[in-house]
Amino acid sequence: MKRRPLLAGNWKMHTTVIDACQLAAAIGKCSAGLADRDVLLAPPYTVLSEVAHVLQGSDVLIASQNVCWEAEGAFTGEISPTMIKSAGGTAAIIGHSERRQIFHEDHAIINKRVLGALAFGLIPVFCVGETLEEREGEKTFEILEEQLREGLAGVSLQDMGKTVVAYEPVWAIGTGKTASKEQAQEAHAFIRKLLAEMFEKNIADTVRILYGGSVKPDNVDELMAQTDIDGALVGGAALDADSFCRIINFI
Ligand code: PEP
């Protein structure tokens, strides 16, 4: 089944207001007129509305890098779905391995974030992936299954159809080590099969599954040629306009 490719850039904790506006403008330019794919940027919260402003009138989608499940309240340090939407965002990355590992976000909190995002009409870009130790211990599929079952618990069929999943092996994030196209395809096929079991085959067939982990201009084409890879979630290379533009324009 043909799914519309999605190329997403996660700027993590990078960019001042000026850097962000310049980068967004360059990406806006090189993604103009691409009718067959979607482009998404996840800037830091501090520049969400500036980036949305720079990209006004373009088709580039804006996401936050995390999201709380409440509209407002006493949640110091958090950002709500309503705030993200008011700043121009339509999606939210949830469950990134840096949130899981550095900030100890567990399945329960990640699940609350997914359900909260959906309840307020934001598209979750839900991240899963195994560590090197887990891969070497042959636990990859067990870990992916646990993350998917726990993180997507309670998501309706209709909402799952809107959700994006990102497979990001932790050992490949920011390390320069990319999963081989075979390793990535194997994990994506596993995820899609599991989604069919958890939801429905026709839903699993429409869900976009992105690969993330040292995606670069020189490996994007072979990754995107895999049957179950529908896009990329890009960290480091998304901070360089030329590299990200090449990734967006994958062949
Ligand atoms: C990421 O931040 O999700 C990521 C995959 O980073 P990088 O592309 O730098 O490995």
TrEMBL record:
Segments crossing the lipid bilayer: none
Reaction catalyzed: D-glyceraldehyde 3-phosphate = dihydroxyacetone phosphate
Pathway in which the depicted protein is active: Carbohydrate degradation; glycolysis; D-glyceraldehyde 3-phosphate from glycerone phosphate: step 1/1; Carbohydrate biosynthesis; gluconeogenesis
GO terms under cellular component: cytosol
Biological process annotations from GO: gluconeogenesis; glyceraldehyde-3-phosphate biosynthetic process; glycerol catabolic process; glycolytic process
Principal location class: cytoplasm
Keyword Isomerase: yes
Pfam families, sorted: TIM
GO terms assigned for molecular function: triose-phosphate isomerase activity
EC number: 5.3.1.1
Location within or outside the cell: Cytoplasm
Record-annotated active site: 96 (electrophile), 168 (proton acceptor)
Positions of substrate binding: 10-12, 174, 214, 235-236
Keyword Isomerase: yes
Keyword terms of this UniProt record: Cytoplasm, Gluconeogenesis, Glycolysis, Isomerase
SUPFAM superfamilies documented for this protein: Triosephosphate isomerase (TIM)
Gene3D superfamilies assigned: Aldolase class I
Quaternary structure and interacting proteins, as annotated: Homodimer.
Role of this protein: Involved in the gluconeogenesis. Catalyzes stereospecifically the conversion of dihydroxyacetone phosphate (DHAP) to D-glyceraldehyde-3-phosphate (G3P).
HAMAP family: TIM_B
Family: Belongs to the triosephosphate isomerase family.
Protein name: Triosephosphate isomerase
Lineage of the organism: Bacteria, Pseudomonadati, Thermodesulfobacteriota, Desulfobulbia, Desulfobulbales
Gene: tpiA
